[in-house]
Amino acid sequence: xxxxxxxxxxxxxxxxxxxxxxxxxxxxxxxxxxxxxxxxxxxxxxxxxxxxxxxxxxxxxxxxxxxxxxxxxxxxxxxxxxxxxxxxxxxxxxxxxxxxxxxxxxxxxxxxxxxxxxxxxxxxxxxxxxxxxxxxxxx
Length: 139
Ligand code: GCU
Description:
With about 140 residues, the protein is an all-beta fold. It has strands spanning about 5-10, 15, 15-20, 30-35, 40-50, 55-60, 70-75, 80-85, 95-105, 105-115, 120-130. It has one domain (about 5-130): Jelly Rolls, CATH 2.60.120.260. The chain is globular, with a radius of gyration of 15 Å.
């Protein structure tokens, strides 16, 4: 089995933003360019068939400005933390940050919600790790 599942930002529910593909280096078919506004972001439906528990979530993003673009990380409606998305040097330079979150068994939502008037960074994808006990043994 896969050791992670990718959720492309462009396939998540977008609040105040659009899907674009004009900055190279994204995965999938594009990325989400949220509006430069508080409340812009994405909500991804994340299924977790295995037992509830901690999972690592990697967020791939680009911020071509030199200003931090903070967003709340909200899991199942609960704000876990505020993430400071630093500048990556260019809109075509993508970076990733990884966080541990607790997921329920079954359906979950992971939302990223901009908390400054600059909005968030451009968002490429969420990569959610499968629990270790579902990974294939390495021979
Ligand atoms: C530029 C860039 C966009 C980005 C935007 C922003 O317009 O091309 O991809 O989203 O800046 O500042 O958020």
